């Protein structure tokens, strides 16, 4: 993989990427499906790039229930500075949905001022700032979904966000039905009943993970 294809290294040459990664004590690791990649309460903060595979940021409550805070796909960037959590949460970690190849970077080394004040390191810090702003926007969208009162409103809001993000009235959702219920913090059986009603009411059609919002409900898409 060309590391400069990742948003963390935007406008940084491949050569500069490799030199900086050596300075940042970076390490590529391979994880099996179901394996934990990173625990966000670890004492040593990291920044990571998901080079291949998919993973989920999960929070488990004392009663054993789980919430999917975020779904990460190939080329996603993760780390404490980008995470949607605080110390009050019980147990938050990044877990593989599939086999994953990950580049781990020591965060303190990455953010440490460069003794040479090189342009590529300055650009890297600007990219980190941009990623934080994108995560903030993503968090705002998630809050919008969770703030809806009914299951139908939550589903419709999430589907509209995905439709706009993928610029199509037909789009692929990155979740199984069980995972979607955990992401929206709703009961799976109740969600499936509501999805059936939404189909009957002509709001959408779906097949497996493909969803299509019907024309009268997609103005502006």
Largest sheet, in brief, is: 4 strands, antiparallel
- The strand line-up of the biggest sheet is 1-8-3-6
Distance from first to last alpha carbon: 33 Å
- What low-confidence regions span 5 or more consecutive residues with pLDDT below 50? none
Q: Sum up the overall morphology in one term.
A: elongated
Description:
By secondary structure, this protein is α+β, with helices and mostly antiparallel strands. Helix content is 36%, strand content 25%. The protein has helices at 14-23, 107-111, 119-146, 151-166, 177-184, 188-200; strands spanning 27-31, 36-39, 46-52, 55-60, 66-72, 77-79, 91-96, 100-106, 170-172, 204-207, 210-213. It has a 4-stranded antiparallel beta sheet. Strands 2-7-4-5 form a 4-stranded antiparallel beta sheet. Strand 10 and strand 11 (210-213) form a beta hairpin. It is elongated. The mean pLDDT is 84. Keywords: DNA-binding, Transcription, Transcription regulation.
